[in-house]
Specification:
The protein is mainly beta. The chain is 11% helix and 37% strand. The strands form 13 sheets. Strands 48, 49, 50, 51, 52, 53, 54, 55, 56, 57, 58 and 59 form a 12-stranded antiparallel beta sheet that branches. Helix 2 packs parallel to helix 3 and helix 4 runs parallel beside helix 5.
Amino acid sequence: MPFSYRALGSPAYFAENRLPAHSDHAWYPSREALEAGENPLRHSLNGVWRFACAQNEGQVPQGFEAADFDCRGWETIAVPAHIQLEGHGVPQYVNQQYPWDGLQDVALGQLPEEYNPVACYVKYFSLPEELAGKRVFLSFQGVESCVALWLNGAYVGFSANSFSPCEFELTEFLQEGENKLALRVYKWCAGSWLEDQDFFRFSGIYRDVYLYAVPSLHIQDLKLVPTLDEGLTRGRLALSGTILGQGNWQLGVTANGQHWATLRGSGDSFSTVIQVNRPLLWSAEKPNLYDLELTLFDGAGTVQEIVPQQVGFRRFELKDGLMLLNGQRIVFKGANRHDFSADVGRAVTAEHIRRDLLTMKRNNINAVRTCHYPDSQLLYDLCDQLGLYVMAENNMESHGTWQNSTNLPESALPGDHMEWEPLLLDRVESTYQTAKNHPSVLIWSLGNESYGGPVIRGMARRFRALDDTRLVHYEGIFHDRRYSAESSDMESQMYPSAADIQAFLAEHKDKPFLCCEYSHSMGNSTGGMDRYTNLTDTEPRYQGGFIWDYIDQAIRGKDRYGNTAYFYGGDLDDRPHDGAFSGNGICYADGSETPKMAEVKFNYQNITAQVTADKVKIVNKHLFTSTAAYDCQVIVERDGHPLRRATLPTDVAPLSEKTYSLPFPPETRPGEYAVTVSFRLRQDTAWAKRGHEVAFGQGVYRVSAPAQPRKANPLRIICTDFNIGAIGDDFRALFSKSDGGLVSYQYGGVELLKTIPLPNFWRPMVDNDLGGQVNLITAQWKVGSQFVSHRQPGMGYWNLAYAPEVEEHDGQLTVTYTYHMPTAPASSCRVAYTVRGDGEIACTLTYDPVEGLPPMPEFGMLFKLDANYDRLEWYGNGPVESYVDRQNGVRLGIWNGTVKDQMARYLRPQESGSHTGVRWARVTDYRGRGMAFSGDDMTFSALPWTPHEIDCAQHPYELPPVHYTVVRCAWKQMGVGGDDTWGSVPHPEYWLPADRPLSFTFRFRGCMRE
């Protein structure tokens, strides 16, 4: 029957003449082809295609599919690629809303008509000689959102499922010589109502497309079901499949070079069961795989094809309310991952996928959820090989049909609308068939944010009918409990607090609990993540979760000045859009790690080291691996400088703990000592080299010394009408009576201050602050910081009341200023400078609480130095930024870097570069000259911009040219939060107190290279 555009809007129209989904196994027609890794019967159609883009169906070039319609004069386009990244339309980022919302009046279940781009592709090709005379098929690995195809003018078929392969047989339509393949790829079809994922919206042929021919006998589908008995000592491999072709055949099965079985037959299917004694077990810790090889012979004994297939034996089950892997309670330390690249969108390459998974392994991530659709095939192969647990998600999300509806469940798709069930069961079938042989896949997920109902229950039933060795997940049962018992084997929620999880599990004791999304990592975030990971240690039925999400979604391009920039929703003139809400990654859009990753790595590490001055308690959270598998290094540093290092042999069994004496006695020499216990790879692995650190713990202790009197350098004090001067051998400080502060500090004859240091109570707002309205709650302190003054309204400009308090004592000078903040109600603070003869100035900021004012985002002082002071060295937590609710992954030490690199590359500029636990810091130029700051336990940052400049920029390229190095010395800064980005705020203990006096003292002085 001919293709029907009018049928495109019907949920019943999702496939015509499409081949049944089958396993993703590789195959080769000969031993030589297998060893070369190239299949001569597979012919890639990737490359240059002829192309025309129509805005809607009415503008499609009429009859272009015909064999005699010459399309050679059309423009060209790359395949695979999204058409929007090839200059046809723009990428559009929307989250919950549908991309046509407000632009076209589209009723539920209908399609946009005025604007529904149609990508018209044409490929002229001649069949390679190796494929001639055989049955020939066409395979699309991914086309968004649907494809109709013609060959030599004859209609071949149709498929609508953006994220699963679709295949068609071309044999009867082929001709000798040149062939013309013509496609219509529609941006939206009926299935698009179920593809409302939180991502950039694209269209086109974005994964590989190729022709393949099959020998006279061909294994079309292969199913491997490896199982284990309860004792985990006897394996059973159920092997079955379908054969395309006729005649007698023989199938030989080997594993790791050893013969396992021989099958003979003449039908179109085969099956057998192979017993395996004491098989090596597969897990993320030890991804043991058997290299299976199936050799298919014809009746004459001639090899027809060879199928290499890796098999992993593992037992995954739900038992007594817990998910168990190989008999042990599993904890998913996961991340949600989109197929995404800043340069090619979802047209990711093998290099992109491998990069992502290697980064996950190196940072202790043991699980990946394929949000919210099947990923490229290579991901599953690599997860098998590297050792990553997979929640394989079906292509379904209809968030925009129900989230804001008051007409539930009627408004939700698929909900109770049974006419959508065949389409979704077809997607379940595709998800299962292509990924079924991968041991890494432990859980089938029905989809994402699509409410509930009987259709979803039917999908769960289909997954269970297809596969009884894995579990089924669906988060939507939390919103619609009608079919919760059947729709999901586990309770699953998005973004509950750790306390909410505990409360839920106290009342619901029948199922395990997963957070399919948690720790929303938008911008500067991931604070308080340890509350969740700690809960996995104390609440058995909480079995982990998946961070949202792995990589920032942003498109790399150029700003108006030709500099590299990353664009988010709205930047490319896409409307409607959801702004920077796509920037949730623990990796930047280029795949490199954000500072947040250090916290993830620590919270997910499988070994905990609790270190004191002389002992270390080691808790091994591995399920199957002793700590003896790793080198354990003990490093002692004194005041940040390496002092001792030794190897500590350990052998802590899985899921147990043991305390060891450190190889060094406690130190007795005065100083601060950091003892770090570090576990490192003993051998190279597939994902990291020997010496890679997998876990660490650090303990800090001090050995006090009797206070030593400091030499009292002479200090000359000059008090005149307008200024107070303090002059020593190497420095000069000048305090203004009229201008209200320290107007000059020279060291070694060089002026170091560009402006008067002032109190600061504000930090640039992070995305979580905006989502939780912290900016509205604390806005008084932004005004208070921007307009802090020693003057008050209603008093004359030269009023003597503005003059500071001056006190000379013990050869020192103390100058104290009172500053007023235009908050409502009004508030004030005091800044006291105590100058010593050696040039050191102690600065004390005090504040008495004012009833009615909110907590401050920060409490400290802000300095502006010249931008030439662009190098930073500090003794404190590092090497990456840290915050009061995100400092587990850092450690005490001496660190250094440039000032500009302290600004993290979040999509939207925001608070960055803070370092907690700072004892001292130096901000210098290339010669080592500059300013040194010290304090007992400061929060410190040095950035090229003020908090207010950062607040005003929505993109890095909007930040002004750099003129200063802005130093902030603070007692504390509030946490960054991270439970979610649309209402949650940092937990109470991570706010600054608003109901008690605050005081903060630190010291500064000029410095030169030592």
